[in-house]
Structures are given as structure tokens and as C-alpha cells.
Amino acid sequence: MGEEHFMKLALREAEKAFSEGEVPVGAIVVINNRVISRGYNMVEKLKDPTAHAEMIALTSAFNSLGSKYLQDATLYVTVEPCLMCAGALHWSKIGKIVWGAEDVKNGHQLYTENRNPFHAKTQILSGYLAEEAASLMKAFFQEKRRRN
Q1: How many CA atoms lie within 13 A of 82 on its CB side?
Q2: Residues in contact with 7: Cβ distance below 8 Å, sequence separation at least 6, in sequence order
Q3: Among candidates 66, 15, 1, which has minimal Cα distance to 37?
Q4: Is 80 in a helix, a strand, or coil?
């Protein structure tokens, strides 16, 4: 199973967010080709601005493993992590992060001036199924504008 397979699973999580009126971002945490946690944006549902897909997936992974570190794990997320999520990922010491679409309005790169905010040993891959992730985001915001 490769990056594309797991990114498709993260996209399914993003679709759940979309169907619930949340910004469609999905995330999964994988260890040894096994999904150990999933998450999608629940900001509106939980009335919590920190309830991003990455944060939900990380918290579930920590609880599942009984550990605060994820050195052997990979996070797959449909959109580039924001600065808050980048900080949480840094402290988790996650082994690898794979994201789809870049977030030019709220992504961590906007604030970090091309400095790596993640742990020094974390491997970063981007652009996986980026078009699919970006299309989902565009569709969500087009629908939202149409309703308003």
C-alpha cells in the first residue's frame, strides 16, 4: 500500500467533513500500513477552533498507542497543515507527513518563511492527490457562497 492509497482514505474523511458542513479536510495516521486513527474537521460541530482534522487524528493516535510520540507513524492529510497543526505535529515527533493540496491562505508555510516547523527527523511529502483535495475545497466554498 502506497501514499496514494492512504491519501484516498484521508479524502474519504474530508468528504465526511464536507457532508457535515465542515471545511473538507481529512487525516489519517498509519503505522506499519495499518490505519490507527482517523479525523476530519469538526470545528463547527464541536464549536472548537482547534478541532482540525490533524488534531482529531493525532489525539486519537496518542490515545490508541498510549504515547505522546509518533516516531513510527505517518500522517496523511488532504491539505497542508496550518501553523497550529504544524506545532502539534512537531511535538508529536511524527515520522512522516504526507499532504495533498497546499493551503495558500492558512497553511503553515505562509507563517514559517520556508523554515521547517516540524521535528528535524520528520520526513515531508506533498502534492499527493492535490487536485482531488483542492477540488473538494473549491466545491465546498462555492456551495457555501451560493447559500449565503
Answers
A1: 12
A2: 76, 78, 98, 100, 128, 129
A3: 66
A4: coil
Give the sheet arrangement for strand 74-79, strand by strand. 34-40, 26-31, 74-79, 96-101, 123-126
Average pLDDT in the chain: 93
Q: Which three cell numbers stand for residue 86?
A: 504544524
Residue 109 has pLDDT above 80, yes or no: no
Residues 54, 80, 132, 143: which is the catalytic one?
A: 54
Q: State how far the Cα of 71 lies from the Cα of 136, in Å rounded to an integer.
A: 30
Whether 113 is catalytic:
no
The dihedral over CA atoms of 117, 95, 123, 16, expressed in degrees to the nearest 10, equals -80
Residues 6+ positions from 147 with CB-CB distance below 8 Å: none
Residue whose C-alpha cell is 482547534: 50
54-95 pLDDT per residue, tens: 999 999 999 999 999 999 999 999 999 999 999 999 999 999
Q: For residue 31, give the C-alpha cell.
A: 503505522
